[in-house]
Amino acid sequence: MPKEVPSSKTISKCDHNDNSKDVPDKRYDSDRSFKLPSVKIQKPFSAIPKKRTDVIKWNGWGYNDSKFVVKDGIICFTGKRYPIGELELPYFTEWAKKLLNVDPFKICLPCEIPFDDFFPKTIINEDFLCEIMNLKIEHSVDGFERLTRSHGQTLHDIYSLRRNMGSIHRIPDIVLWPCSHEDVMHIIALADKYNVVIIPYGGGTSVSGAVSCPESETRTICSLDTSQMNNILWLDKKNLLVCCQTGLVGQDLESFLQERGFTCGHEPDSYEFSTVGGWVATRASGMKKNVYGNIEDLLVNVKLVTPKGVLSKEGLYPRQSTGPDLNHIVLGSEGTLGVITEVILKIRPVAPIKKYGSIVFPYFDAGVACMREVARQRCQPASIRLMDNEQFQFGQSLRPKNSSYWSSFTENFKKAYLKHIKGFDLNLICVATLLFEGEKDQVEQQETLIYKIARDCGGIPAGENNGERGYMLTFVIAYIRDLGLDFNIVAESFETSVPWDRTLTVCRNVKYIVGKKCKEFGIKYFLISHRVTQTYDCGSCVYFYFAFNWEGLSDPVATYGEIESAAREEILRCGGSLSHHHGIGKLRARWYPKQVSQLGANLYSATKKYLDPNNIFACQNLLPLKSNL
Amino acid sequence: MAQKFRNILEDFQKNDHDFLWISRAINFIKAYNQSRPHISPNKLKKIVAKNSQLYDMVKEVFEDKGFWAAKQQISEILEEIGYAYDLAVVRWLGLFLIKMLRKSLSGLYINESMLKVIASEMGNSPVIFVPTHRSYCDFILMAFVCFKYNIHIPCVAAGMDFLSMKLMNKVLRNSKAFFMRRKFVDDHVYRSVFQEYIKAMISYEESPIEFFIEGTRSRTGKSLSPKFGFLSMVVEAYLTGDIPDLTIVPINISYDRILEEQLFAYELLGIPKPKESTKGFFKALKVLDENYGNILINFGDAFSIRSFLDNQINFRYRNQENETNKIKQIAFKITEMQQSLQIYSCFNVLALVLYDHIIRTHSHALALHEAVRSVNELLFLFDLFCGTVFVEGDLETSIKQSIIIHGSLVYLSSENVIILKKPKFKRHLNQSENQEGCYLSDEIIEEGVPIVMLQIYVNPTLTLFIRSSIILTVFECLSKEIEVTIDLLYENYQYICDLFKHEFVLTSSNFQEYYDSLLKLASLGILELHEGTIKIKNYNNVYIFLINLLKPFIISANEFCKFLLEEDITQKTQLQVVKEVQDKISFKIISGYIEEYYCLSLDLLSNIYNALSEMKIIIRNKQKNMLFTNAELLNDLNCYLCCLLKGRKMPYNFFKNSYLYNSIGKSKL
Ligand SMILES: Cc1cc2nc3c(=O)[nH]c(=O)nc-3n(C[C@H](O)[C@H](O)[C@H](O)COP(=O)(O)OP(=O)(O)OC[C@H]3O[C@@H](n4cnc5c(N)ncnc54)[C@H](O)[C@@H]3O)c2cc1C
Question: Could you tell me which residue ranges the Phospholipid/glycerol acyltransferase domain spans (chain B) (predicted)?
């Protein structure tokens, strides 16, 4: 979470009837096109340049200047972007030693940026490339540019880049940077004509193997990088809508809107780097969905460029009964049907009050009972998340020495609730973090209600500070894996959505199965932890973190894969879904037909055949390869 | 083998350390340690009482009486069921026990290394101890052993008979016994409450949980057919996702001498036992002044229900039939494991020798040196049949020692002859009341009791030999000269296995076991296997020994059939039928037609009854509440058994009798 995000104080309350012209013009007629020719297009500030690796890592997560490092045996976090930056983290070091048997002096440095002759040879369809050049669409066949668009953020991806470069065989042959819907239409027509494969590439934060190239593909593979399609096309304050190109990165969209007193409110943990197009293509879910909705709730209209033409609905209707909603063919299509070029999303005025909170529960089940009750009464704040004890302890360790803001949870807690602390076992307790957004009295009301429910379930409010830290850490946690890989630790997360009555079963059984599997593989040091990150009327979203020390294993990624598969089988067996928001990609394709029924899979397959008869969107997401069945 | 076991009484040699030991600070190992704080027994009851689902389940029963009446009854039932825990009681019990054990046992042996492995792997899923049930001591010993190894003492399912014992029920309850009514399938409210209680206990409890799969103490020394009720409740908690797995630990507790041996012998003959009472219990303690030899507790390999069920059960789409089948399989697996964990004592072998001697010679006396020789021979047979006999040191000394231990049954005369003792029998005045068996004369009781007691020590060994015994018995009348094919013999073998399915808990009459037995017999030189046919080679001593083992069982079955052929049973109950068959047998014993007193065993007769109903020879018409027999099948069986007994060759096409025909048809499917 960049520090620059405007705080609530600096934002003036927006005027709903504002007709000012500092933003691209609002529309007077309900013309069905996305873009009025007369409107001046605005290019918002772009946090990530065209040459991505100038700012973000080529072989890991996030900004180049932000990372965990070990100095004199103590883990530190670099850079000033995040609040824990430039601080020593002695407790975290201890935690890593104890739990994962990390030796901070035994570092194994990652691979260097490879030389030019390392990159796999390109397969170039010359005619296609020639026509692209005629169209003056920017492109590159540079090895490094191609490599950085060959992967997402799965463990497999990052492990290969850092430790096993030799395993990288197939990367895109050409990178293309279209600037507009029209560019994309040209590219797709040409690709179809010359039988060239297109893989849309947004922020590259995919965690399902969705953007990687199928090894067996012998045609030219183009990575269609949407990063230059990052314009805001218009902002409609009356209807509270924004229209933008899909390469727009989440944080850029958000700063643009916030400067004008609005917010989209869609905040996946990856929103610093993931793109609007990526969100739609994967059916992303944001932390604050309780107030703003998930991407499918936000999406009003969308353009999908397919080899057969452009799929798009008419108008700006709030809801329609016009047959099946075709937006839903685009949502979750994971780059297999076409390129999403422009979208219209709902926006909201920025909430005047933003307040954090936290609740401590004596044990996890009590916390889940509270979440369930909150959902039953439909009084969720913008976000409510419940961490288990492992994550609580881990979060505790991520604090610098001697800092009052960072003083330990227990200290804060003790200060406030000395009288109640009895009966709470620090090895069992778990913590829910809360984020409220809204008008002052609204927030107050919500607080009262939620803390009452919490008390009924055995919980005690544990202060704003703890809540705020919890959310802040979310963004930092993603950086830890890179460090881990230098110390023989692999780590990854996986998630599911599950009905309320199966939530605890899923949590418990997955922990059990992972423990059992680790034992089978002779893994001595591991961490399996879960948190409930979203609540719905009929269920929750559960998010798992799993890390282990791979000492003694020859292929840690394969072992990881086997364990995650076992966990997934268990999730499905217990009544959890294949994915709440990460998507199917290639990683989970083998379970897809079972989840949607064979008929469902065939229906999708027929759609795909119709829209893309030559299979130029050949990233092979969703449907399992025959060979894997 | 013996070094696997450790005598834990060795740790308690010094009296004055006892108190220190029981009062030591203990950090108990938790069997299941989920991320939840510990829950007190009272809290557990409250959780169940508060369960709204439970209330929904029972509310129809309370239609008009309403919510409070239901609450009231639920909480009363919970009070009756629920265990309590008082560490002080457990400590005092420990002190008392250690003194008792030191006095009355030579050794309490444990396969300690296995127990340590089990304990070290505890923590992730509920652990269920499933010991054999031969004596009331089973409870107490298990608690003692857990206490000794710093494992939380188990919550154990106890029968209601203890509830009537005043002080005892408190002690038991406070050492985590919970109480379970017998046969409560039809009591909807009780069943629902009990089920919910068990489910809650399984998911909240951090101690191991213990139950007896046999449902009750086996009076015969043999395994009883496993019961599925409690097991299925436990497995249900896994299937509904309340727990991630279940670890099952089959355990065999082998006694040199069973505390209740005499009581059991009387019970088997149908002479009523005194009701359990605390006074009776203390009286029984006097019995403890005698020496009871060794007790061996053999912990089996723990297995996980999850692994056992693998992916064959779907949590979301439950399939009743499939689950019931699986639970049966688990139950039989446990019984099978318990059986193979059995450790035989010297006296088991000696009992076999005496049994064989009595059948062959009708004499109740056997010279010591002959006994030693025969025991020695038999040890070889035990080896071949993979039975472990726990003998320490010199054989003759051990045998003498075991004769002393079993002074209630045998003694060594001054001429070094082993003699079977007759009991001093005093008939209670009110004996005819609530008597389960028929009236037996004093002579029969005096002759019968020692034979039945002896059989109690023979019985455990039958698990090893019974398959071979059935094979030879069947073979004898199939053909004495000509060869018989393996398949034909197998069909006939299965027929008899079905008949004694309950008697010997023949968990699987599958071909592999049958074939293994054939190979063993071949290696003994009794059989010859040649291209799918079998021939008897040698009618040696072992052959006769094996044939003799089955004799009383066949006789009983045969008498049962004859009874059914002669009598009209339409208006009778199972108990009446069994009682009348017993009466008939006792009459034949008096008149000298039958010599085997064990045929009188009510347990044996009811097992036959149950088998006959499963074979559809006895049919109960539920609507009319009447019993019928299938005349054709009954006739077939009767002829068959007659032939077996007389060793007469059967008419060839006889084996194609209608039951066999059906069951073969089935097995081919
Ligand atoms: C640390 C971390 C935290 C995350 N947190 C969240 C979270 O909180 N919520 C959540 O939902 N997800 C989360 N994700 C997953 C990921 O960020 C989302 O799936 C995101 O929507 C992907 O966007 P992207 O722009 O990076 O897409 P990419 O990774 O580039 O692509 C993802 C898929 O979408 C396709 N695609 C991308 N753009 C287009 C387009 N314009 N047209 C057609 N297809 C396209 C690609 O071909 C590919 O199949 C997280 C990932 C990481 C690494």
Answer: 127-256
Could you give the CA distance from residue B495 to residue B484 in angstroms, rounded to a whole number?
A: 16
ipTM: 0.86
Residue B659 has a pLDDT of: 56
Q: How far is the CA of A340 from the centre of ligand 1 (A)?
A: 13
Structural contact between residues A184 and A341, judged by C-beta atoms closer than 8 angstroms: yes
Cβ atoms of B178 and B232 within 8 Å: the answer is: no
Please state the separation of Cα B76 from the chain's center in Å.
Answer: 32
Tell the residue number behind the tokens 């010679």, with chain if given: B361
pLDDT, position B650: 57
Low-confidence ranges of chain A (pLDDT < 70): 1-41, 403-422, 625-629
* Alpha carbons B308 and A83: distance in angstroms, whole number: 50
Chain A: residue nearest B124 by CA? Answer: A512
What is the amino acid identity at position B495?
A: Y
Closest chain A CA to residue B36? A363
Query: Which of B37, B124, B316 lies nearest to residue A363, judging by beta carbons?
Result: B37
SS (H, E, C) A4-41: CCCCHHHCCCCCCCCCCCCCCCCCCCCCCCCCCCCCCC
Question: Are residues A515 and B124, on separate chains, in Cβ contact within 8 Å?
Answer: yes
Q: What is the DSSP string of A232-247?
A: EEEEETTTTEEEEETT
User: Checking phi first, is residue A344 left (phi over 0); if not, alpha (psi -120 to 50) or beta?
Assistant: beta
Task: Copy the structure tokens of residue A569.
Answer: 């089988």
Q: What is the CA radius of gyration of chain B?
A: 26
Chain B: give the shortest CA distance to residue A558, in Å.
Answer: 22
H or E segment and range at residue A502? helix A500-520
Q: What angle do CA B457, B460, B464 make, to 5 degrees?
A: 135
Q: Any catalytic annotation for residue A543? A: yes
Residue A332: phi and psi, rounded to 5, are 80, 10
Listed in sequence order, the residues at least 6 apart from B79 whose beta carbon sits closer than 8 Å to its beta carbon are: B45
Query: How far from A382 is each of A12, A86, A466, B108, B247, CA to CA, in Å?
Result: 21, 30, 17, 64, 42
Ligand 1 atom having least distance to the Cα of A334: 49
- pLDDT score of A476: 92
Catalytic residue among A82, A194, A292, A543: A543
Of B342, B335, B348, B352, residue with least CA distance to B296: B342
Tell me which H or E stretch contains B178: strand B177-180
